[in-house]
Design goal:
By secondary structure, the chain is mainly beta. Helices cover 0% and strands 50% of the residues. The protein has no helices and ten strands. It has strands at residues 12-19, 22-25, 32-39, 42-45, 56-65, 68-72, 77-81, 88-89, 100-106, 112-116. It starts with 11 loop residues before the first strand and ends with a strand.
């Protein structure tokens, strides 16, 4: 994860495409990440990212069609917001403590699925 320093505003990493999704993992994730596409989802793997307890990452997904597939450690709390036709699949954290990942998914079709591993 790339952290912003105290001298500048919190950095937002932006990924844009017309057709096609985004695959994000490891060091390509910042404290705030925005993915936008007309058609296409986002596959985000945070299992190898060193997130300290109490840290928060915000991911915003904008698309007409396309959901979010998120892979996190067992101790990560995931909070999902936004408006979309599609549900949220998440059994919740399986270990206490840990950081928080906030996912705002905006679009017509596409849910948010969380895999813990």
């Amino acid at each position: 994860m790339t952290k912003s320093d105290g001298n500048d505003d919190q950095k937002t990493d932006v990924h844009v495409s017309i057709i096609g999704g985004h695959r994000l993992e490891g060091e390509t994730i910042h404290e705030r990440t925005l993915t936008a596409s007309l058609i296409g989802g986002a596959s985000i793997d945070l299992t190898d990212v060193d997130l300290p307890d109490g840290a928060e990452i915000k991911i915003t997904k904008l698309s007409l069609i396309g959901g979010v597939s998120l892979k996190v450690r067992p101790d990560v709390t995931v909070k999902v917001g936004g408006i979309r036709l599609g549900g949220v699949s998440d059994a919740g954290p399986t270990a206490p403590g840990g950081p928080t990942v906030r996912v705002d998914a905006w679009g017509l079709l596409g849910g948010v699925s969380v895999e813990r591993g």
